[in-house]
Amino acid sequence: MLQTDMQRRLAAEFFGTFWLVFGGCGAAIFSAAFPQLGIGFLGVALAFGLTVLTMAYAVGHISGGHFNPAVTVGLWSAGRCSNKHVVPYILVQVLGALLASAVLYLIASGKPGWVPEGFAANGYGDLSPGKYAMPACFLAEFVLTFFFLMIIIGTTSKGAAVGFAGIPIGLALTLIHLVSIPITNTSVNPARSTGPALFAGGAYTSELWLFWLAPLLGGLAAGVLARILWEPITITETTALVKESHGV
Predict the structure, then answer these.
(1) pTM of this prediction?
(2) How far is CA 155 from the centre of its chain?
(3) Rounded CA separation 206/243 (Å)
(4) How far apart are CA 178 and CA 219, in angstroms?
(5) Which of 5, 28, 33, 81 counts the highest number of beta carbons within 10 A?
(6) 46: helix, coil or strand?
(7) Contact in structure between 56 and 68 (CB atoms under 8 Å)
(8) Cβ(53)–Cβ(166) under 8 Å?
(9) What is the DSSP letter of 35?
(10) CATH pick for 2-245 out of 1.10.3210.10, 1.20.1080.10, 3.40.50.300, 2.60.120.260
(11) Among candidate residues 76, 89, 78, the one with its CA nearest the CA of residue 9
């Protein structure tokens, strides 16, 4: 039974992360490349928010709906994620992101003359959309991930409105993208950064460290603060709260 439960959890995290990368990065690679469609970076921001919103309700009640190593680490530091789930969750999240990026690459390469260029990857300095320096990009990723985790933890805590957590979480990710697409092309998710970077190659992979370190530190900091700000609850209670927050 425990093995089956773990398999279900890992499948949920895999498909949730796949959908986040495929939907969000896909919007950036395909639709945003055609100004006549009118999607712009507002549309890309909304696409990322919608991926989390839809998968939060689809599979969030199975695994907790992390879809992001920084979320897993942040919830672990808040006492909301079991030790045994941390490494397996992160592994399948990265695998989901890699497979989604591979599928996007196969589709995009079907266009004559297409070259990957940035491939929706994240970067700082010359690879930053707005040419922001590394310290500015690090600070942005840290702060935005911190608040993303604060919103996730707060909306799934005791006393929060039942059945609605997916909505503020999805909107929070949309807002995060509206702020930081010009700065880093928005990560706040090491798995989301890893997939596209490996296909974009070159300098993008050399800058990948920032998009692991800053989000993980931001998530950890939020988790530590959450232990003070919100009433401590057990992992068993957390599972029940997550299910309630998704209307299950």
Answers:
(1) 0.92
(2) 17
(3) 39
(4) 20
(5) 28
(6) helix
(7) no
(8) yes
(9) G
(10) 1.20.1080.10
(11) 89
